[in-house]
Fold each of these.
Amino acid sequence: MRTTRITATVAGAVAALMFLSGCTARDDASPNTAEPVDSSKLVSSLPAATGEVDEVTWALVEGEPSTLDPAGDYSLAIPNLCENLLQISPDFTVEPGVATSAEWVDPVTFVIDLRDDVAFWDGTPLTADDVAFSLERNRVETSAWFPAFVLVDTIEVTGDLQVTVHFTAPDSTFRDAIAGAAGAVLSKAFVEQAGDTFGTSTGGVMCTGPYVFDEWTPGTEIVTSANPDYWGGAPLVGTLTYTFITDGATLANALLAGEVDGAFNVPPASRDNFAGSDSGRLVLGPSTASYSFGPTNSTGAGADPKIRQALSLAIDREQFIATVLHGLGEPQSTFTPPFAWAGMEAADQYTAAYDELAAPELDLEQAKQLVEESGVDTATPLVVAIPAGAKELSQTAAIIQAAGAQIGLTIEIDERQPTDFSQIFFDPAARESIDFVATVGYLDAPGVLGYAQQFLLPAELGGFFNWSGYSNDEVTADLQTARTTLDPAASADAFIAAQQIFAPDQLQVTLASAYQTTFLQNGLTGVTTSVAVYSSPWALHLGSE
Amino acid sequence: MSVAQLAGGRVAAVVRKAATRDPLVIAAVVVVVGVAVMAVFGQALAPYDPDAIYVGPVSAPPSLAYPFGTDDLGRDILSRVLAGTAPSVIGPVIVVVASSLLGAALGITAAWFGGAVDGIASRVIELIFAIPGLVLAVLAVAMFGKGLLAPTLALAIAYVPIVARLIRAGARQELGKPYMAALHIQGVGSAAICFRHLVPALLPALFAQTTIGFGYAMLDLAAISFLGLGAQPPASDWGVMIAGGQPALIAGAPEQSMFPALFVVLTVLAVNVLGARVTTWAERGER
Amino acid sequence: MNAGVVRTLAGKLGELALTLFLASVVIFSAVLLTPGDPVAALAGGIRPTPELIEAIRAQHHLDDPVWQQYLHWVGGVLTGDLGTSFVYKTDVAALIAPRIGVTVLLVLYTAVLIAIFGIGSGVVAATRGPRADRAVLIGTSIGMAMPTFVVAILLIWVFARVLGWFPVYGAGEGFLDSLYHLTLPAISLAVLYIAFFSRITRGAVVGQLHAEHVDTARVRGIPRSQIFRRHVFLNASPQILAVSGVTVAGLFATSAIAEQAFGIGGLGSLLTEAAARKDLPVVQVISLLLVVVFVVLNAVADIAIAVIDPDSAKPRRNA
C-alpha cells in the first residue's frame, strides 16, 4: 500500500524531529546552572599582555553608537579613543592620567596640571586650551555631564599646561567626575572644524587615547589602530575593530565560534556555554551595574512608595538572580551599588552604613497589605517600559508582572524601540502613559552621590530623574552638604544620614547587582574586566599572553 | 439539480472520496482538527497558566509534569504552545479569508467585464504581485509599528494576486462554456448567473487555493514574529517562542524553540497535504 | 531572433516600466500613510524648536505638493541620492552599498543549491521508478513545511551544539571563507524551495515523458540520454524557468530570516532592523530595490522562456 507507507514515513520523520527536539539526552543534568559566584573571586583586570597581536575584533553588545563624541553616547569603543583627565583603575580608584595632578588648592579652587608629552593623533600637542574647551563643552545644560559642573563658576587657562576651575561652592564629586567622560579630552581645533559632523561616521573624532580612529562603516564596523606615540606606550594590538551584535544568542554563537575575539556584558543566559568553551573564557568582575525599576511620573500608582515597597516585597531576589543573571550577580539593598565607593577614601564608612540597611526580602502578605493601604485603584493596569530586544530586561518585566499578579496589581509591559525608549528620559509627555521604567544602570565613575542626586533632589538642584516628585527637605540638605564638603569622612556622614531616610522609599526598586562579564578568546589577555571599562582605556594592555 | 448544487456537492464528495482512499488525508484532517481544537480551547486545556513564571524549575527538560519542558522563566512550554495556538492561527485565517474574498472579487470582475476593466484589474494584480509578501509586511511594520495587525493586513493584500489570477482564469473558462450562453438566452439575470452559477463553479479551486494559502500565510507570519516585528514577548505566539528560545537552543535546551516549531511544521504539513489532495480531486472532478 | 520574441521583449519592457512606476508610487506613499509627522522622526527624538522644524521641512521638501515630493524622491533614487536614514542620519546609499554583496552571494549560493537538489531530485523522481518517486515525494512533503527559520534553528542547534563543522555566525571574509560561512544560511533558505522545485520539475518532466515527440524519438532509436536532454528536459524547462524568476527574487526578501538567524550583515537584516526602528527611508529604498529585482528577474525568465519555446510567447500565463 503506497499511501500507507507514505503516512508511516511522514509520521516517522515527524517523530524523529520530535525526538531531536525534546527527548535527546542532555550533556549535563540541567542546562542552567545558576550557582552563586564567590564574590571574592571576582577579577577586575587580566594580567597585562606581553605579545603583539595584529588584529582583534571586539563585539559591542550595546550596539552601534549614534556618535563617538564622548559627550553624545555611551559606547565601549570611546574609552580607548578619547581619554579622560584622570584615569580610573580597574579597582575603581582614581589615578593620574593626562593630568598629572588635579587637586583642590582651596575650598573653591581646583587646579589641573597636564602632562607635557601628550599629543593628539594628528601630532599636535595637547594644551590647556584644549582641556578648558573640552570642559566648557560639557558645561552646558543640554550635556549629559552637566550635573558635574553645576557648582563651577569659571574655567580658566592658567598656564600652557594648567587649567584652574573656580567654584561657587566646594564640590566633593568633581575630581571623580573628571575621571569619567565629563573629563574627556578633545582637540579644540578638530571639534571646531568638524562642527556638526564631529563624532559621526564621516566626521570622526580627534583625541589622545591609545587607539586611533580609522574608519566607521555605518551598520558594519568601526576600525581603530594602535597609537604608536601614545604617552603611556603603544598598545600591542595593531588593529582593534568593533562590530555591533546586540542579539544575545547571535553574540554567544559568534564568541563560541571564535568569530569575535571578545565582548563585554555577554549574555548571562549563555553562562554554561561560555564556561564549557575550549576556545575562550568567561571572566567575572566587580561592577556598579544593577537591575532596577522606578516611577516615571508623579500622578500614577508608581509614585506611591507603598506600591514600590509592595512590589519589592513580592519579588524573590534569589530567584531573580538565578533566572535572569544565571547566578552572575548578587542582591543589592539600595540603588547606590557598593562598588561605587570601593576606591574612595571613606569606603569603610559607606560599607558599614550599607550593611545596616534592610536587605530585600520576600513577604507577600505584607505586600498585599501595602497595596490595600495605598488605596490605589487596582483595576487600572500599571505599565512597565523596557527597551526592546534586551532579553534580560524582558525577563525582568515578566517577573515584575508576575509579582504584581500575586499581590493584585495588573501590570502591562511596554517594549520600546531604542529611540522611543530614550524619549522617556527627556520627554515628560512620553512618561505620562507609563508607570515604571525598568533598566540596567551603572555608574561609570566612582562616587556615591550620582543616583541619589538624580532621583531625590528637586529638578532645579539636579534631580533630573526625580520624576515622581520626591521631596524631603532633610534629604535635600544632607545631600547638598555631602556634595559641598571636601572632607571625605564628613561628606560620607552627610550622605549616610540621607540614605537612612530615603532608602526605605525605594525610589528605584533595586532587584540585583550584576557582575561585569567579559568573554575573551584564549591566548588574549590584558583587558580590564571591571565596570571601569566604561571610562578607562580598557584595551591599553590587550595582547597575547 | 442546479449547477450550484452540483458544485456544492462536489466539494463534499471530493473530501469524502479522498478520505476513504487516503490515510494521509485522514492524518492531515486529524492534525487540522486538533489544531482547531487547540485554537479554541487551548487556554482551557493548558495544564498551567501559560504566562505564570516559575510553575516549574527553569529550563527543565520534558518530564511527566511538564511534557514539553519549561522555558527560561520556568513557564510551562506545553501550556504556552496551547495558548499560542489561537494567535498563531487567527492571523493566517484572516489573511486567507480576506485575500480570497478580495482576490475572487477582483478575478471575477476582471473576467466578467473584460476589456478595459480586465486591463486595469490585471495591472493591479501584476503590481501587487511584484512586491513580495514579506517586503509588504515589513513595510507595513515600518509604517505602523510592530505587532501582528499591520503585517496580517499587508499579507492579506499580498496574497490577492495569486487568488485573483486563479479565479480570473477559472471564471473566463467557465464563462466560455455553452451552459453560460444558455442561461443568458433563458433570460437569467446577470446577478443570478454570477452568484448562483459562476461563483459556485469556482468554489473548489478557491477552496484548494485557500487551504494552500493558509500554510504559506502561517509560515510568513511566524517568520515575521521570528524577526521580532510581529507579536511581541511575552506573548505566547509560536513565532515569538521559536525566536525567544534561541539562546536556550545553544545552551542545550532545544525544546523552547523546537516544540512551537514542531507545531508550525505539523500544521503547515497537514494543511499542505489537504490542499494538494483537494486540488487533485477538484481537478479530476472537473474532467 | 524571430518577430514573436522581439514583440514579447518590447511588450515586456513596457509592462516592466509601468509596474516599476506603479510600485514606486505605492512605496513612496508609505510616507504619506504613516501616522505621525516625519519631522519628529527626522529631528531624531529631541523635541524640535520651530526653527528646526522649519529647517527640516525645507531640507526634505515637506512643504512641496505631494507629486513634487514624489518626483524628488524618484529622481534622487535614479541619480543615486537615496535619502537620509532617520536612525543613522547618514546616506541610505552608504548603508546599503556595503551590504549588497553578501546578500547577492547568499541568494546565488541558495539558487545553486535549489537548482542542483531541487531540479535534480525532481528529475530523479520522474525517471528512476516508483521507489525513488515515493522517496522524493516524502522528502518534499516535509520540505515544503519547513520554513527557513525552523531549518535555521535546527542547523544552529546541530552545528553549534553537536557537530561544529560549519560556522553559525557571520559572513566571513574573502570568497571561499564567505561560501563556508554562508553554507548553513543557504541551506536554511533552500530547503523549502528545493521541495517546491522538485515538485515542479517532476510534474514538467513526467508531462514531457508521455509527449508525442518523445515517443517518436524513442521509436527512431535515439539514445535515452539524448532524448532526455534534447526532448524531455528542454521542453520541461519553461515550466521550471517560469517559477525561477519569482523564486530568486523572493530569496532576496526571505534572506532577511537567514541573515537574522545567522548574524549576517546583509540587506535583509538591514531591512528588518530598519523596520523595527521605523527607519522608513531605508525600508522604502530596500523595498523598491527588491521590487526592481523581482520585476527584472521575472522579465528575464519570461524572455528566456520565449527564446527556448517561441510558441509560449503567444499564450502567456493568465492571458
Amino acid sequence: MSENTQNTPRPSSSLLELTDRTKRRNAAEKRFRAYGIGAIAIGLLMLAVLVFNIVSKGTGAFQQTFITLDVELLESKLDKKGNRDLADIKKVTTFGYSPIIRNAIEAKVTGLGIDTPLKAKAMAGLLSKDAAAQLREFVVANPEKIGDTVEFRFLAQSRVDGYLKGRVIRANIANDKNISSEQLDLVDALVEAGVIAKTFNWDFILGADASDARPEAAGIGVSMMGSLFMMLVVLALALPIGVAASIYLEEFAPQNWLTDIIEVNISNLAAVPSIVFGILGLAVFINYMHLPTSAPLVGGLVLTLMTLPTIIISTRASLKSVPPSIRDAALGVGASKMQAVFHHVLPLAAPGILTGTIIGLAQALGETAPLLLIGMVGFIASNPPQGIAEGLLSPNSAMPAQIFEWAKRADPAFYERAWGGIIILLIFLVTMNTVAVILRRRFERRW
Amino acid sequence: MPLLWLVLILLALSVAGFFLGRQRALASAGGNSKDLHSLPSYYGHNVALTGLVPALGVLAIWLLAQPLFIESRVSSLIPEEAIPESSTLGLVMSDVRRVAEGLDLAVSEGVMTPEQARNMRSEFSDVRGRLGEIGVALGSDVRPEVLNAAQSYRNLSNTGTTAMIFVVALIAAVGFAYSYSKTHKDFRARNVVEQGIMALLILAASLAILTTIGIVLSMFFETINFFSLHSWTDFFFGGTWAPNFRGDSELSILPLLWGTLYISVIALLVAVPIGLFAAIYLSEYANNAVRSFAKPLLEILAGIPTIVYGLFALLTVGPALVRFFGQGENGILGVEWMSGATSVLTAGVVMGIMLIPFVSSLSDDIINAVPQAMRDGSLGLGATKSETIRQVVMPAALPGIVGAVLLAASRAIGETMIVVMGAGAIAKFSANPLESMTTITTRIVSQLTGDTDFASPETLVAFALGLTLFVLTLGLNVLALAIVRKYREQYD
Amino acid sequence: MNDMTAMDKTMEQQKTKIAAKGVDVHYGEAHAIKDVNVEIEDKTVTAFIGPSGCGKSTFLRCLNRMNDTIDICKVTGDILLDGEDIYDKRVDPVQLRAKVGMVFQKPNPFPKSIYDNVAYGPRIHGLAKNKAELDEIVEKSLRRGAIWDEVKDRLDKPGTGLSGGQQQRLCIARAVATEPEVLLMDEPCSALDPIATAQVEELIDELRSRYSVVIVTHSMQQAARVSQKTAFFHLGNLVEFGPTGQIFTNPEDPRTESYITGRIG
C-alpha cells in the first residue's frame, strides 16, 4: 500500500508510536462510528420532529373559542301559543332561532359601545352555523326558560377560532368568503371585552363528527365508541381463539406436515398487508354474509383475523418460556397432560399472554386501511350508540378512520382536528403499551 | 333478535347441565366423590360441553350456509329475460334483498301486516312508494319478478331461521340427554372432556388456515369474475390505468406496480442504511446506557399507527418538500419542480422513517446471532472494530440481513395509509420522484370505497389487484422467512 | 522447509518477551486476577494451568488487550512487551494485537474461503503490496500452520467446511499470517479429538522456534508435553511459576501439588 511498506513486513517498531497506517485505520474507525451515531441521531430526530408536529398542531383542537351572549328567548317567536307544549316548541325550526341570535349579538355589540360597520347578519356570522341548533336544543330541554333572558355560550365559527389560535391571519383572508377584516376587527373588540374566549373543548373529546361546513363542532367521541366496540369484539374473539391455538401448537401438536403448514401459515399471515384483510372482510362478511356495512362488529371481526397471528406468536413465546420441568412435575404427580397445561403452564404464562394481547389490541386500534373497505369512513354517526347491540351493529366510524376522514376534507380547520385526534389515539396507545411493559416488568420470571 | 336469545338459552342450558351432570355423578357414587372415575366437575363439564358445542357448531355452519342456499334458490326464480340489458344477476339480486329487507321493516314497524307483505302484488300497489314511507329508498319501481323473488326470499329465510332454531335446539337437547344418561361413576368423564377440549384447540389452530383459504378464495372468485369481464392481457401487460364509466376502461396493473415499487425502493433507500447503521451501532458500539435509552425510543417509531405517518406525509413532509423543490422564486431552491404535496418522494421518505425501527430491530437480532467468537477472532488478529464489522460480522450476517430487507420490502409494498395520503392518484410511468404517482394499495382503496358495483370491472379489478398484492407479499415473506430461518440454524 | 533456521533460533539466548508486574483485573465487583507477576520468555512455550475459573484465560486475554472489548473489565498494573507498557495511553490495541496474535478455544474460522481467512490479517495490516505477495504470505502461513498439504487444492472453499482439527490449524495459520511475535492460545485443543490434538500440539512445538507461545490448558499432560515453562493459577493468584519439569515433579507450593495430584480441580 504505502511507500514505506518494506519487504520484511513487520519491523520491530515501538508500540508507542502509531504507524501512518494505524492512524488511517483509526480515522476510518471513527468515521464508521460516526455513521452509526448519525443513523441513530436521524432516527431520534425523526421521532422528535413527529412528536413535535403532533403536539404543536394538535393541542389546538383541545381549545375552542366560544362567544357568550345574553339571549332573550322571545315567547312570541318560540312558543306562539304560550302554553309551553313541547310538541309545539319542537315545531319551531332552527330558522326560527336565527333572528333571536342576531338580536342577541347586535344587542351585545351596541351594549359594549363597539363601533362597527357590520350589519347584524354579518355579526351573527361570527357564530358557528351550529349556533341555532345549539340554542334550539337548549330550549327544547328547558322550555320553562322561554321568555327569560339567559346567558348562553355559542361556538364561534372556525375562522374566528382559527384567528384566536393564529391559524387564520389577516393577510390571507382576502379571498375568504367566510370572514372579512371588519369581522376580525369586531372579534378583536369582543375579545377585549371578554365576550369571545377560548376554553377547554370537551365536545372534541366527547362529541360526534360534523359536516364539512362546521369544523368547529366536530368531535371524536362517537368514533371512539366505534373503536371501543371493535376492541371488545377483538378481545372477546382473538384472546380465547389465539390462546387455544397456541396451546395446541405449542403443547399438543404432533410434529407433522399439517402442523408445519399451520405454523408457516401463521407466520405468513402476520405479514400479510392489512388491506388484504379488508378485502377479505368486504367479500366474506359484507358481500357474502350480508352483515351490516360500517358496523363495528364487522370491523372487529376483520381486526380479529388480523390480530390473531400476533397474539398466537406472542402467546407461544410465553408458553415456550415456561420450563419443561413444570410440566414434568405436574405429570409426575399423575395429572393428565391437559391438566398440566391448564393448571400449571397457562397460569405461569398468563402475564406474557396478556402483554401480547394488549400489544395486539394496540396494533388493531391504530389500524385504518381495512376499515376503509368495510365502509367505516365518512360522516357516519352523529349520535353515540345506545346499548351494546346498537353499538355493535349500527354504522359507526373508528378513531383512525375519523382522523383520515378529517385529513381528506378541504377546510384546514379539520387538520387541527386530525392532529388532535392523533393525540387522543396516541394517548390510548401509549397507555396500553405502558400497561404491557409494566405487566411484563412486574410478572416476568427468569427461570 | 332471535339469534341472541337462542345463544343465551343454550348457554343457560349448559350451565344447568353442568350442575345436573355433577349431581348425577355424585349421586351414582353415593355422594362419595372418591368412588368416581374423574373429578365431579368433569362430569358437569361433559354434560355442558356435549350439549353446547355441537349445537353452536351447527348454528355457525347453518348461518354460513343459509345465505348461499337461499341465494341460489331465489336467483333461479329470476328468469333470464328479467335481467335488464345493462344489469347482471348480481344487481337484480341486491334489489331483491333490498325489497325483502324493506318488507321486513314494514312488518316490524306495523305499516303492513305479514299477510299484506306476503301477498302484495306490484301490479296493484305502489311498492316503491309504500316502502319509501318507512325510509327504504329504492332506485326504480319494483318489477313483479323482483317482488316475487323478494317474497320468496323472505319466505325462505323465515323458514330457514325457524328450522335452524328447531334443529339447533334439538341437537342441544339430544346432546344433554345423551351425556346425562351416560353420566355414571364409572364413566371416564375426564378423558371425554379432554378429547372435546382437544378438538376445540385444533379448531382454533386451524382457523389460521381457514383465514388464508378465505383470503385466497374471496379474492380468487372475484378475480375470475373480473377476467371474464376484462381481458387479462390488458391487466398484466397493458400500459395504462384509466378506469371510466363508459365501459372501455383500461385497467393495467403495470403503472400501479411501477409506482408501488418506486415508492418502496425510496423507502428502503431511507430505511436500510439508517436502520442498519443504527443496529450496528446499538449492538456493537453502544454501552448499556445508550442502548437502553435509544432502542426503545427508536421502537416507538414502529408502534405509531400508519395513519399518523400518512398525516405526517400529507401535512408536514409534503409541504416541506414543496417549499424546497417547488413554489418557483419563493421556494428555498428557487425551482418549480414540484407542484403538490403528494409525490413519490413524500410517501417514500415517510415510509422509510416508518421502516427504520423495523429494519434496525430485525438486523439487531441478526447481528447479535453472529457468534462472539467471530468477532474475537478478528479483533485478535488486530482488526479494528469497524474492520471486524465490515469484513467479518456483516458477511456472516448478510443472508439474515437480506431476509430482513425483503421483509421490509414486503411491508413497503403492502403499506396503504401512507401512500393513500402521500403518494397521489395519478397512474403513470415516470422517473421523476417529485411527481405524484399511485400504487396498488391506493387503487384498491379507491375502487372499493364509495359507491361500488360488484358487477363492473372497475370494482372487480380491486380483487385482482388484491390477489396480485397478496401473491407478491406472500412470495417475499416466504423467501425472507426461509432465508432468516436457514441463517438462524447456521448459528444455533 | 525452514528446519535450519528453526534450529538456529533454538540456540539463541532466551530473553524476556513479556513482563507482567503487579497485574490486577476486576470484572465489575469481582476481583479476577490478584497481583500477578510473571516473565514470559521469547522462543519458549509457556503454559498456564489451573482449575476452571482460576483466571488463567482472563490473564491471557490481558496480554493482547482482548479484555478491552468487555466494558466492565478493568486492568491495573504493568504489562511490558519488549519493555513497553502495552496499557500505555499511546498504544493502539490494534497495533498490539498484530504483534501478539491469539488462537481461541473453539476454532472460529470466518465464513469466508480458506484463502480469505488467512489473507484477512495481512490485508488489514497492509502487509502485502500485491496479489503475488499475498499469495506467498498465505502459502507460507498455511505451511507454518501445517495444513498446506491438506487445503492447497481448495483454497477457495469456505473455511467452515473443514474438520475441527483442520479449522484450528487454519486459525493458527491465520494468526501466524500477521507475523506476530507472541502467540496466545486459549485452550486450543479443548474442542478437538485426540488425533487433531496431537497434530496441533506438534505444531505448537514447531512454532516455538519463531514465536513466544503462551498456552492456556486444562490438561496437565498437554502442559507437560508442549511447554518449557508452566504457571499455576488458583483463585486469581499466580501460585507458582517455573520450568515445567520442576512444577510437575517438584512443586514448591502445596496447592500446586494438590492440583497436580488431582485433589483440587
